[in-house]
Write a structure and sequence with these properties.
By secondary structure, this protein is an alpha/beta fold. It has three domains: 2-167, Ribosomal Protein S5, domain 2; 192-429, P-loop containing nucleotide triphosphate hydrolases (Rossmann fold), CATH 3.40.50.300; 437-505, Helicase, Ruva Protein, domain 3. Helices cover 36% and strands 17% of the residues. It contains 21 helices and 18 strands. The strands form six sheets. A five-stranded parallel sheet has the order 11-14-17-10-18. It is elongated and about 85 Å long.
Length: 505
């Protein structure tokens, strides 16, 4: 007798349908699982046995062989516990094969037969939908996550007996509209209106967030670089539904919870973080900080303190907006479309150029410190801002006019939102921003008036701009024009973009 149940497993950002095939034969009692099952799945034999017996079901006494197809894919995780248990119930005659037609199952079983939350619930729901299945049975804790995928009946279950009665048609499961309380609290975060002075840095951060431009803030300690970067969180626009699904998919791969990520991520790894935690990888090839910052901000405080090989690993994701992690039998790809906000001191002591404190570093120390960040990485940063110290006499008096229409947080957020909308309309693509444009797309979508192009060409010659820097100025200027809600790039927009270029010595 052959029994079949369906499930799915995440492989990177995507997922694959898994077919559990069960065979019962005469012979000494045995329970074997084949199909490149790793340790967590091999251990499912004991969990499933205990769960079935604790739930009042009989366990087959014949020789049982379960095959996990496709057999050439490594299987890992605990979400196959439930489909294995259902398969055994079919083999033992307690369920019929017809009871599980057009359905997929995923869940981790406790020894008492209850269900625990799993990782990758959104990925599993996507795989079930692509396979044309009608329903998905999943732990009730993951119900809200799985419901993000429409066009599929999602049923949340608490225990194996509850699922059994539902499949037999004896007691239909009735799920509430929402089963997981939102754990995101409105923590009082630092806002731009709370920061005194620094109009240039604020303007640069507004441009960076509007066009997804990478930005580097440089200045002495205590000038507000970190505060400004964290305050950028208050300017991030809300996630669209598709973005919400992408962010939740990534976070569901890292922890077995039913949480839905409703806010744009702001990731701030410490400079002592390992390379794997930063870019992803490890035995299970999980997403790293650059992927968890997808559609949000990756904040690297004290950039030169990060190891050089860690920073160099960022070059490809900054360019391609994805990260690929290769293993012997599979290649995992995760999105990494984030805005980089980085800060640094100008020298080891931090006071180079500070009028209040003399610099104690030698010229060799200064150059050696600044060389920790390679030229190719700096080429991927669009905006460079030198943050100066706010005089102590102004810290109390230089309060931003919070109630002023042109300074209110809501106005700035709406301006950024409008600029993003303009970009999506111009490029007919909801995932494309000015910072990601190729040179060919710049020529196609950002025409410059003759006098504006003449001015830019003169500036490029005078400043000896490279081709990359030339196009970078156009992209930043286009974002500034979007913030001004104008269809054409003007000389003033070019001038402002030039003011944020990297100052070479």
């Amino acid at each position: 007798m052959i029994a079949k149940t369906l499930s799915a497993l995440p492989y990177g950002f995507e997922s694959s349908l898994i077919e559990v095939e069960g065979d019962k034969n005469q012979g000494l009692p045995a329970f074997n699982i084949v199909g490149m099952a790793k340790k967590t799945i091999s251990e499912a034999r004991e969990r499933v046995k205990s769960a079935l017996r604790a739930s009042g079901f009989s366990f087959p006494t014949e020789k049982i062989t379960l095959n996990l197809a496709p057999a050439d894919l490594e299987k890992e995780g605990t979400s196959l516990d439930l489909p294995i248990a259902i398969n055994l119930l079919i083999l033992s005659g307690q369920l019929r094969q017809e009871d599980v037609e057009n359905a997929a199952f995923a869940g981790e079983l406790s020894l008492d037969g209850s269900l625990k939350p799993i990782r990758g619930a959104v990925n599993i729901a996507e795989a079930a939908k692509k396979a044309g299945l009608k329903s998905l049975f999943i732990p009730v804790a993951n119900l809200d996550q799985a419901r993000l995928i429409s066009g599929l009946e999602i049923v949340g279950i608490d225990s194996l007996p509850q699922l059994f009665l539902h499949l037999k048609g004896e007691k239909t499961i009735q799920n509430p509209k929402s089963v997981v309380k939102n754990t995101e609290t409105d923590v009082e975060t630092l806002k731009f209106t709370d920061i005194k002075g620094q109009p240039l840095a604020k303007r640069a951060l507004e441009i960076a967030l509007a066009g997804h431009h990478n930005i580097l803030l440089s200045g002495p300690p205590g000038t507000g670089k970190t505060a400004l970067s964290k305050a950028a969180l208050s300017l991030l626009p809300d996630l669209t539904r598709q973005e919400l699904i992408s962010v939740t998919k990534l976070y569901s791969l890292t922890e077995a919870t039913g949480h839905i990520s409703k806010k744009r991520p702001f990731r701030a790894p410490h400079h002592t973080s390992s390379l794997i935690s930063l870019i992803g990888g490890g035995a299970s090839a999980k997403p790293g900080e650059i992927s968890l910052a997808h559609l949000g901000v990756l904040f690297l405080d004290e950039l030169p303190e990060f190891k050089r090989d860690h920073l160099e690993a960022l070059r490809q994701p900054l360019e391609d907006k994805t990260i690929s992690i290769s293993r012997a039998n599979y290649k995992y790809t995760y999105p990494a479309d984030f805005t980089l906000i980085a800060t640094m001191n100008p020298c080891p002591c931090g006071y180079l150029g500070d009028l209040a404190h003399p610099c104690s570093c030698t010229e060799f120390q200064i150059k050696n410190y600044q060389r920790r960040i390679s030229g190719p990485l700096l080429d991927r940063i669009d905006l460079f801002v030198e943050v100066s110290r706010v005089r102590t006499s102004e810290l109390i008096t230089a309060v931003n006019p919070v109630n002023s229409p042109d300074q209110s947080l809501d106005v700035v957020k709406n301006t950024i939102k409008g600029a993003i909308s303009s970009q999506h309309s111009r490029y007919h693509n909801d995932t494309l921003y000015n910072a990601s444009l190729s040179s060919a797309m710049i020529v196609k979508h950002i025409p410059l008036a003759p006098q504006v192009k003449r001015f830019l060409d003169q500036a490029a010659t005078a400043l000896d701009l490279s081709a990359r820097s030339y196009f970078k100025i156009i992209k930043v200027a286009r974002t500034i024009a979007d913030l001004d809600n104008t269809s054409e790039v003007s000389k003033d927009h070019i001038k402002e973009a030039l003011s944020f270029r990297r100052k070479t010595t």
